[in-house]
Amino acid sequence: xxxxxxxxxxxxxxxxxxxxxxxxxxxxxxxxxxxxxxxxxxxxxxxxxxxxxxxxxxxxxxxxxxxxxxxxxxxxxxxxxxxxxxxxxxxxxxxxxxxxxxxxxxxxxxxxxxxxxxxxxxxxxxxxxxxxxxxxxxxxxxxxxxxxxxxxxxxxxxxxxxxxxxxxxxxxxxxxxxxxxxxxxxxxxxxxxxxxxxxxxxxxxxxxxxxxxxxxxxxxxxxxxxxxxxxxxxxxxxxxxxxxxxxxxxxxxxxxxxxxxxxxxxxxxxxxxxxxxxxxxxxxxxxxxxxxxxxxxxxxxxxxxxxxxxxxxxxxxxxxxxxxxxxxxxxxxxxxxxxxxxxxxxxxxxxxxxxxxxxxxxxxxxxxxxxxxxxxxxxxxxxxxxxxxxxxxxxxxxxxxxxxxxxxxxxxxxxxxxxxxxxxxxxxxxxxxxxxxxxxxxxxxxxxxxxxxxxxxxxxxxxxxxxxxxxxxxxxxxxxxxxxxxxxxxxxxxxxxxxxxxxxxxxxxxxxxxxxxxxxxxxxxxxxxxxxxxxxxxxxxxxxxxxxxxxxxxxxxxxxxxxxxxxxxxxxxxxxxxxxxxxxxxxxxxxxxxxxxxxxxxxxxxxxxxxxxxxxxxxxxxxxxxxxxxxxxxxxxxxxxxxxxxxxxxxxxx
Length: 654
Prior knowledge:
alpha/beta; 5-stranded parallel β-sheet
């Protein structure tokens, strides 16, 4: 998230909260104008009882203000008219929150794909404009409304497409779900039900102090496993099973006038715009099931999403009263009848994503020198000219960063580059790394630093990795915090060349993204968590020597052809690291089968392994490369690690 956006949020919250006043409840068929939402920014704080109470208050005030003047839906015809008026300057930013495979079947022209469960992730929010209207859409309007509600709570100018793709397209393959057909015709009552006695406020302790940070943390926590809707027949069956003990509290979030026309038996009335007030929250039971409903499913989904953010066990009734009652007066809105039949566009097939990414990766590797020596970095930092100093990024664990790090280095643990959840969003992940300066990354021995530097290089950063990592920089064993390289294992090599396998086809993946950077980030979020990027030489040797060929990985030497000819691991094929992402190389590699790559010292092998991992392969890099495998200096063909330089480090205070 840019500094500009963060300052915008800080400045906007005071103005927005003073301008917005609490409005009454209304039909989700209201006009589709949009007003500016209040915005805040995240900052960590300590978790105490007082902080917990304050978090509820902060969320309640901020969300209630955000809902006050919000028109949460936009009709398909209004969106189509906007997009077709010939004036691109007023077009909204369109987000499909459907799955990548359904996005690929067809989407509104220009739409980007952010699946709804990841809408609150930092990488997702970084894609969204703060200064342009946003329209999200899903299948039938429900998960789109979840995403829109969270974005509205976070300060975005956003609406949800009413009825989702079901209302936009008449192509059933593109719609990819069962559309609304008819109401069930279940009964309603007109006698009002009193609100329950005050049950107390929910307990929230995210450790954040500002509304944006609290809401984002809560969204990330609750979206992962939440089922946001419940079908009308499931609600009816529950209420009709003769067991009152399992009945949910039913909350009508329609207007008081429409609640009086008819509501589900036992339902209480809380207008959707006041669902986050402290009075409403106090009336709702913590730990007991709640079902909300509205007119067509949209404002009910707003209310359910808000309550889920506060920690309630809540679902929204799919289709709202439109799906429950066949009494037109009680439904009190125009129900869904048919899709508009507006056009959609397809997206590239899965292999095209791999093709586009492979081409970009090959270009990024072509002229890259992936490592910088400790001597070269030290000389740069010691030349008295701060203008040419790189940004130094330690990708080691925070506790090891604290033991000692290169002067001026920032700490971004390598696993958080694409998903800094749980860290201060202003000081973690890609947000912390400038795009207009040289970046030097370092780790323990050079391997995870090389993985991080490779990913950054793929995204367009001017990034290199410190050769040997902290092992090559410091001679303080406590600071190095790992077992340094001592000697090679002396395992055998062969000189006979091995042919590439027969073509296996290009890798197939589909993130639903259109731009290389977005595809790479999506792939990184999917492929890097849980990845063990290196395999020790002895583990590989043991595997190859166990007498079971069935579990052997494909070995890929990414060294030069000349050095491959000097000696290579038995059975290894040769693909130079700079061409690892070409169609010819990818076509030769087996999907779903283990691959082990190696190089000279572990660095360019880690480049190749990272590239292949981003492409979806099951791959690891041999730790320390041929230097760790062979004790034949002619075969190693490079100067191996001998001793650290002994350059200084600084420790974190406290």
